[in-house]
Specification:
By secondary structure, the protein is an alpha+beta fold. The chain contains 5 helices and 4 strands. Strands 1-2 form a two-stranded antiparallel sheet. Strands 3-4 form a two-stranded antiparallel ribbon.
Length: about 150
Amino acid sequence: MTVLRVSFLGIGQKSPDSLGPPQVNTRTLCAVQRFQCYYCKQTMALPAHQWAAQQDNHATLEHLLPRSEGGTYDAHNIRAACRLCNTLRGTKHLSWFKEFIEDLRQRTTLINRWHQLLPIERHLVFQVCNLRYNSWDHDRKDRARHTLRNQPG
């Protein structure tokens, strides 16, 4: 059986019963996090509606373990993140992304105006992030394959 969930997923979208309603909401998480993004620590704003987050500083619900990897809407798996960080992270590994943001903070002044990036700066940040992650992920998979090949048995 499927349930029509208008308020959370958007009008007319269906979701499986197992998904259930979210156990946290953006407003509550923002208050707990003092309206600071979980990643960049910049101030976030609440959009008029949860599904209408269109500006980079709008707060969104961020899954620490992405839904595509089995992440749930449980409170331990959800944080409030600005739309820019949420979009930039996508399904990238959590620890890698936190290190990337910290590295960006230490090496550049971009983080000081994170929500006011020019379009070309935004594009370059996305390109660098994706290139670095793909390289890191490739190396990680190579190390895992090497470890499996060298195990006795």
